[in-house]
């Protein structure tokens, strides 16, 4: 550890460690401060890698393979006999993936000359040319003041606690606890039908749990396009998820080996018992020990760090990224903001295009979108045209037994410009990247129509959806006027 650095990054999650690596590549002296301890060891990677994106995807993949083996192989002529799931091995595989990736990040920091300081980072004073950061070591709580020409705040977020369902780390857990169940609960309750709730609910439902998902909002997946949300709701319910919208949980308490959940819907109250309850109603910015009283950082009314479009705070040389600032709490957003902040510090004019940030829900099939929904486009004053294509008519999807879902495009009817792409399909998270790239290059629907998509691929559905916007889909009967 040095006394001073060109850049100090507080937070070693996706945004923080990528920023540190890029700064090292650019020749800066860099320190990345991270206080996380996972399974008894200091760990980089933040929530995403340790207890979020990566471990949840590992469990989603394991549970999907189990369900597919148990229920879906017979139609292919494959006989399996009795199928069992070893939860201990499933969790061990997940832990192995996390360990491999966290170790990889540590190696990347070292390889790029970044000092990983294991402990807490507090911006004591962000004013002036030399910012002061207090470093509190994990090992012995010793405190050291470091000076830095620039600081990036990247402390991430933590699950929101709600008073009506206080977590106890056993029967009532947050998203982190739901990744470490040692057995499949017979009945599982989930508070929150957002990304985390649907993914974790799907994992344990596939493995045999009876799952009830409570959602206080009156509509399902309110942020998604209405057509996609409606289709997703039907599919997930068919899979066995009991999703109850407009239903508010008013109390949850542990009695013996059960969690008694009281909920209210349409003015009526009811009680149900569960073996486990997952609380996943969202996340909040993590600010513990992050800012000293005289740091000089300006906050928003919501308690987030106030930044401009380039993630610069009100103080020169101090940036904040990821879950600490406005915008969706997504790892890839934080990553690009971290890179942008470093490039700006270096004197370049990098910019994140917030209009093309992709959202993905890793259920099966996946639900993903980029850009405007049909409803958002109309509210913004566009004259909208849309096109969609059902995967039931896609040869590759049928061959893979993945003929569920659809692709939808949203465009400006006057200019033909693509405004958004929405998908519910196998690999939807990858499919909508085609829409993101097209939007980055200001493509029109005609551009997509004129491209040659390989056959047979699921991506052909993107081509058909684009053709559908003008009534030209080949593998669907349309009543629109053909051009």
From TrEMBL:
PROSITE patterns: PYRIDINE_REDOX_1. SUPFAM superfamilies: FAD/NAD(P)-binding domain (SSF51905), FAD/NAD-linked reductases, dimerisation (C-terminal) domain (SSF55424). The keyword Cytoplasm applies. One of its GO terms (biological process) is 2-oxoglutarate metabolic process. The keyword Oxidoreductase applies. Disulfide bonds join 48-53. Residues 5-338 form the FAD/NAD(P)-binding domain. GO terms for cellular component: cytoplasm. Residues 359-466 form the Pyridine nucleotide-disulphide oxidoreductase dimerisation domain. Binds 1 FAD per subunit. Signal peptide: none annotated. One of its GO terms (molecular function) is dihydrolipoyl dehydrogenase (NADH) activity. It is an enzyme of class 1 (oxidoreductase). NAD(+) binds at residues 192-199, 215, 282. Its cofactor is FAD. Its EC number is 1.8.1.4. It is found in: Cytoplasm. Keywords: Cytoplasm, Disulfide bond, FAD, Flavoprotein, NAD, Nucleotide-binding, Oxidoreductase, Redox-active center. The active site is a redox-active disulfide bond. Belongs to the class-I pyridine nucleotide-disulfide oxidoreductase family. PANTHER family: DIHYDROLIPOYL DEHYDROGENASE (PTHR22912:SF224), DISULFIDE OXIDOREDUCTASE (PTHR22912). This is Dihydrolipoyl dehydrogenase. The lineage of its organism: Bacteria, Pseudomonadati, Pseudomonadota, Gammaproteobacteria, Moraxellales.
